[in-house]
Design a protein that fits this description.
With 230 residues, the protein is mainly α. The protein is 52% helix and 3% strand.
Length: 230
């Protein structure tokens, strides 16, 4: 079996390039740079404590299940697991459809049913190459559908974590206690935004550790208007 070092998807023998990111496949995956938390571990927050009590609550930190930082984080805009599942599903349907239709066309052409027919000594080679190509499309399409199912399961965990963090933010963070911790006199609105979001980030990270940066950015962007633009 071959593996993509970026997407961490498994491929059948004979495939050398990842269909999703274009990376060359490897025989074995590198070791994770950080130990993954057990699936049964649930993230815990400091609910019931005020924000001012958070400085001495290091022992309350727990892992954010399913959202773990790794050194090999992909660059670019963050996509949640639900979006990844949708992307893999669309790719899977497309590649599977092309593979099936292509194989059917090759078979019908070889049987003389279709008007397009290759003759000469190279006919079998041509049919074989095209058949192998469409078979590869079919295999990659099936793998993409399997990846879509896996990301769909991960999305359930991700959504549960997001809901828990948002509830914690609504209970512990207000516009007043955030601005009280900052010096915002004569500060432009854009600078206020960056200072506020950085403080929100610090307080969330204090209670929920190992949260992926893109996931946290999206969550803060969703929470910020609730308290400062409502």
């Amino acid at each position: 079996m071959a593996w993509c070092p970026n997407c961490r998807n498994e491929y059948v023998e004979g495939i050398t390039v990842c269909a999703d990111c274009g990376s060359e496949l490897v025989e074995t995956l590198p070791q994770e740079t950080e130990e993954r938390w057990p699936q049964e571990t649930e993230p815990q927050s400091l609910q019931g404590e005020s924000v001012s009590e958070m400085d001495g609550a290091d022992d309350a930190k727990t892992p954010a299940d399913g959202i773990i930082r790794t050194r090999a984080a992909m660059p670019g805009a963050y996509k949640d697991n639900a979006q990844k599942a949708a992307d893999f599903k669309d790719s899977g349907y497309t590649l599977t459809g092309v593979g099936i239709l292509g194989l059917l066309a090759v078979v019908l052409s070889a049987m003389g049913v279709l008007p397009v027919r290759m003759g000469g000594s190279a006919a079998f080679l041509s049919y074989g190459v095209m058949g192998a190509m469409f078979l590869l499309f079919l295999v990659i399409g099936i793998r993409s559908m399997q990846s879509a199912k896996a990301y769909k399961k991960k999305a359930l965990t991700e959504n549960s974590l997001k809901e828990q963090i948002m509830n914690w933010c609504r209970e512990n963070l207000t516009a007043e206690n955030i601005d009280n911790g900052l010096s915002l006199a004569d500060t432009a609105e854009e600078e206020k935004y960056f200072k506020r979001t950085e403080l929100i980030r610090e307080r969330i990270s204090h209670s929920f550790i190992n949260i992926e940066e893109g996931f946290l950015d999206n969550l803060i962007d969703e929470f910020y208007p609730e308290i400062f633009e409502a």
